[in-house]
């Protein structure tokens, strides 16, 4: 195996913390990954990893080797593309993660145009409300809605999503249309949380100085944006959701906006990628396309 390939495998093993996960993400047999590490250790004359049945841990020499490997691989990738024409076909695999509703309503419908322009590109698209681990799971970039907590990643802000309050016409017919915060005591809120078992927030609104929470009862808590919308259409209560995700349901008459003066805080939308000196051209192209697609909607 070429030393550069062995170095790439070594870096991937350290990112995932597992020979098996590294093999799966690289599309290689586990034996090939194990042999690559052995080859690298033999070549360098030192042990790079401590292996146990549960995890893989860097040795002191392994940590020094990892930093050098990252620099060398970044230099090689930059060197390989120094004289590549900007219009040369993009190739290889691109792994991205998008919020489920945004992927379904906006990105996937536009994706045929992007792939027609780059027919040699292969995209692996994850669409989930779970916060994926970009580095550990091998994503080239992820689109995040909401605050960015991981300071080790590079964030490219795209804008903000306006949130609105909606309920089904059938729910409003049964319970009435609220106009004040006090009216909400007679209504239900469908609660959304990324982790079931945590205490959901109430109705969010701007009180003139800051965004605050108005406690509300609810019979249902969900952790998925599609379930959140479906529960609202079914008449189980109000939701506070990005306008773009429910615009179609409003146009179809399945949802109705209420209390526009008491909206939740707009959600930041960002593209995130790993802290690398040189981002692959395929990732750059996809991120630029995604920004061009989404920014006018934000």
Automatic annotation (TrEMBL):
Alphabetical UniProt keywords: DNA-binding, Transcription, Transcription regulation
PROSITE patterns: HTH_LYSR (PS50931)
Ranges for domain HTH lysR-type: 1-59
CDD domains noted in UniProt: PBP2_CrgA_like_3
Signal peptide coordinates: none
GO BP annotation list: DNA-templated transcription
GO molecular function: DNA-binding transcription factor activity; sequence-specific DNA binding
PANTHER family assigned to the protein according to its UniProt record, in alphabetical order: HTH-TYPE TRANSCRIPTIONAL REGULATOR, LYSR FAMILY TRANSCRIPTIONAL REGULATOR
Family: Belongs to the LysR transcriptional regulatory family.
Protein's recorded name: Transcriptional regulator
Organism encoding this protein: Pandoraea aquatica
């Amino acid at each position: 195996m070429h030393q550069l390939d062995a170095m790439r495998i070594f870096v991937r093993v350290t990112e995932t913390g597992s020979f098996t996960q590294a093999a799966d993400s690289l599309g290689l047999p586990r034996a090939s990954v194990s042999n690559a590490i052995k080859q690298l250790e033999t070549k360098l004359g030192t042990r790079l990893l401590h292996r146990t049945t549960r995890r893989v841990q860097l040795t002191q020499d392994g940590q020094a080797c990892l930093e050098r490997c990252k620099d060398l691989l970044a230099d090689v990738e930059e060197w390989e593309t120094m004289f590549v024409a900007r219009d040369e076909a993009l190739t290889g695999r691109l792994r991205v993660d998008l919020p489920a509703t945004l992927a379904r309503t906006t990105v996937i419908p536009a994706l045929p145009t992007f792939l027609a322009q780059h027919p040699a590109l292969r995209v692996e698209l994850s669409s989930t409300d779970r916060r994926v681990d970009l580095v550990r799971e091998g994503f080239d970039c992820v689109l995040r809605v909401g605050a960015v907590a991981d300071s080790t990643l590079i964030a490219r802000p795209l804008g903000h999503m306006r949130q609105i309050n909606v309920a089904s016409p059938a729910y409003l017919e049964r319970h009435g249309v609220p106009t004040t915060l006090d009216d909400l005591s007679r209504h239900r809120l469908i609660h959304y949380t990324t982790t079931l078992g945590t205490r959901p927030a109430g109705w969010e609104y701007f009180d003139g100085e800051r965004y605050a929470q108005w406690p509300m009862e609810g019979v249902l808590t969900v952790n998925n944006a599609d379930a959140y919308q479906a529960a609202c259409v079914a008449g189980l209560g109000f939701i506070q959701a990005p306008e773009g995700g429910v615009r179609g349901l409003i146009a179809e008459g399945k949802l109705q906006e209420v209390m526009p003066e008491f909206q939740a805080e707009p959600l930041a939308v960002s593209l995130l990628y790993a802290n690398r000196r040189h981002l692959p051209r395929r990732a750059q192209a996809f991120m630029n396309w995604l920004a061009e697609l989404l920014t006018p909607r934000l």
